[in-house]
Amino acid sequence: MKFISLLCALLLSTTLLADKIHLTDGTVIVGQLQKIAAGKASIQTSFAGELVIDQANITQIESAAPLTGVLTNEQRFQGNLQLGTAPGQLQVAGASAPVALDSVKALWAEGVADPTIPPPPPGREWSGEAYLDMSGKSGNTEKFYGGAGAKAAMTGPEDRLLMYIKGAYARENSVTNEKEYIAGADYEHSIANTLNSWFVRAEMEKDEFSGINLRTQVVAGYGYFFFKEEDTQLRFRIGLSYQRREFETGKNEDTYGLDLNLHYERRIDEWGTLVSDLTYTPGLNDTDDYRLYHESALDIPLLMQKPLSLRLGVSNEYNNLVAEGVKHLDTTYFAKLVYKWK
Predict the structure, then answer these.
(1) Is 199 a member of any domain?
(2) In angstroms, how far apart are the furthest CA atoms of the chain?
(3) pTM (2 d.p.)
(4) Using one digit for the tens of pLDDT, what is the confidence trace for 160-198?
(5) 132, 199, 204, 342: most buried by Cβ count inside 10 Å?
């Protein structure tokens, strides 16, 4: 009997300390009132979790702890709510007159964020990836190829900064035939939160087997997204380009030109991402001096919901003006192991 009496006392005290929402149909919901905002009331109950109720269906509110409220005229009040004398009114403890329930703009419990203050805009977030690819052959011909790279992106609601670095090394029969390093940065900022944007990109490349000791390029211009959705985007860019090439012969060339780029990206269900880029850079002072670069790649997760993926793709680089004995076109087929982080 003592146990039953104690249990009843605990249940009664819990009910007495709980908040109560009275509805137009006579129902009384007992729990812990969280907030009223945008015409909705949220109350945490022990029998059904969080319930959301239309403010129009509430006639009165009783609270076990002080609540803070804001009226439609921006007047604030604070205190325990008691059972009012008439439906549709809130009686604040210690107040001389009740408050009309339909004049309440917001109401919230202690520890709950003020719902009248808009949330801060989303900040910038960092993400990135690192990749590694290697291949080799032994027997009549000894071949080795290795490549590695990394990139980091800082994405905000209006802009994005991308930084990247990559390199490749290859040898055949103990003779090195490829050694290339590329580093760059790309900054893009939307114009008035539209599909239009402006961008600046800078890149440096060192390729010991192209006859060019160092290539430096800076591009600035305008971009437009034909569509920019969560799973698919297509973007076109056009900009003015300045490029400086330092040849192994000691000769230097400064060229000015255009930079046109088409970027397509699509996430395929939950298992892969297809990315394709096409860039055309013609010179303004010499129409025969241009560079065409294409790369398409498909990322396939090795484990679902895991950051490790396999990237399969092909890249083509065509330089119309090259040193004597050097081919215009370089085509690379690649399979890379990629680790992504966010």
Answers:
(1) yes
(2) 104
(3) 0.64
(4) 999 999 998 888 888 888 888 999 999 999 999 899 999
(5) 199
Instruction: Write the CB contacts of 160 (distance below 8 Å, at least 6 apart in sequence).
Output: 153, 154, 187, 188
Contact (Cβ atoms closer than 8 angstroms) between residue 229 and residue 196: no
Domain that holds residue 22: 2-109
Alpha-carbon gap, residue 305 to 197, rounded angstroms: 32
- What CA–CA distance (Å, rounded) separates 241 from 312? 30
When divided into structural domains, the chain yields a total of: 2
What band does 220 get if pLDDT is binned at 50, 70 and 90?
Answer: very high
Q: Examine the domain organization and report whether 150 and 89 are in the same domain.
A: no
* Range from 12-21, 66-75, 219-228, 302-311 carrying the lowest mean pLDDT: 12-21
Look at residue 120 and tell me if it is in a domain.
no
Residue 12 belongs to what H/E stretch? helix 2-17
Across all residues in the chain, what is the average pLDDT?
86
Q: Which two tokens stand for residue 54?
A: 């239309």
CB count in 10 Å sphere of residue 212: 20
Q: Residue 292 belongs to what H/E stretch?
A: strand 290-301
Distance CA 159, CA 151 (A): 17
Separation of CA 311 from chain center: 21
